[in-house]
Design goal:
Layout lengths: L1 H10 L2 E6 L3 H12 L4 E7 L2 H11 L3 E4 L8 H13 L1
Parallel strand pairs: 1-2, 1-3
Helix pairs in contact: 3-4
């Protein structure tokens, strides 16, 4: 069963989009994701506005976000991303 899961993960990695305003943190997270077997960074965004404008075309499986983004209410992050992906 474990070998089967590894084969599936290698064939279709989990796509992660990252939203983080600090470049060093964002690039570090992208490297961490890309260096982890079974995962691939689909995109990295500096602002929520950038993410919402393009995340619908990236169609990530997971969105990793800074909940303290300037000008963005943390309580609205998940709903905003989910709405953009469903469009």
């Amino acid at each position: 069963m474990k070998e089967e899961r590894r084969a599936i993960a290698a064939d279709k990695p989990i796509r992660v989009s990252i939203i983080e305003d600090q470049r060093e943190v964002r690039e570090g997270l992208e490297a961490l994701v890309n260096g982890t077997q079974g995962f691939r960074c689909a995109a990295g965004y500096r602002t929520m506005e950038d993410a919402l404008a393009r995340i619908g075309t990236e169609l990530p499986d997971v969105v990793l976000t800074d909940i303290g983004l300037p000008g963005c209410l943390a309580s609205k992050v998940s709903a905003s991303c989910a709405s953009a992906i469903r469009k």
